[in-house]
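User: Hey, my collaborator sent me this sequence without any context and asked if I could get a structure. I don't really work with proteins. Can you help?
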Amino acid sequence: MWVAGKQFYFGNRFRNMGFLIAVEGIDGAGKTTIAKHIKEILEDFGFRAEVLKEPGDSVYGKMIKNSESRFPPEKELELFILDRIEDVNKNILPKVNAGICVIMDRYYYSNVAYQGALGIDPEEILRKNEEIAPKPDLTILLDVSPDIALKRIQKRQKITPFEEAEYLERVRELYLSIKSEEIRVVDAGQPLDDVKSEVYQLVMELISSRGSFFEMAMRK
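Assistant: No problem. I've predicted the 3D structure and written it out in structure-token form, which is a compact way to encode the shape of the chain:
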């Protein structure tokens, strides 16, 4: 039963397991760029690493991605959770348990912030997600003002209903209100090289915390 597996996963992080790293932030914060950067850092040290993006490619994830307008908040949250359950069981846990480091380009804190900004209780969103998904070893929260984020978005695509300034400000506030020991906030409004430098240090701290695993990777 998967629940038993989940309990095993949470309570017994063997040193040959991969890291689970989440990259979070409002649209335009630079998550995809930084997720790829983390993958490169880990691979430079001999780790196997993959980037996964949410929503995923399940039928539920495709419903979210292919919809021309947003679903009602409760329905949207339900679809995200159903998509995540499938992603956890088919992709995230098997890869991490096989020693592959998984970098999530968005994870469940996105639900806390985005659906929370639509009026759903953030604590309830967090509770529902923590029941079905493993907690990251490290969450990098890329913090940037909506003004900067929207300027970046406009350079590459049309603004969507997820990307309106007032809404993004509420989302940003909720992101910053989340209290969890593995979250590290990085100023994503600074030059990209500076953002990458801060992220590099955070990844090094994570690697160092898994002593023998780090030594094993260095010997490869």
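In plain terms: Residues 19 and 101 are 5 Å apart (CA to CA). You can pass these tokens on to your collaborator as they are.
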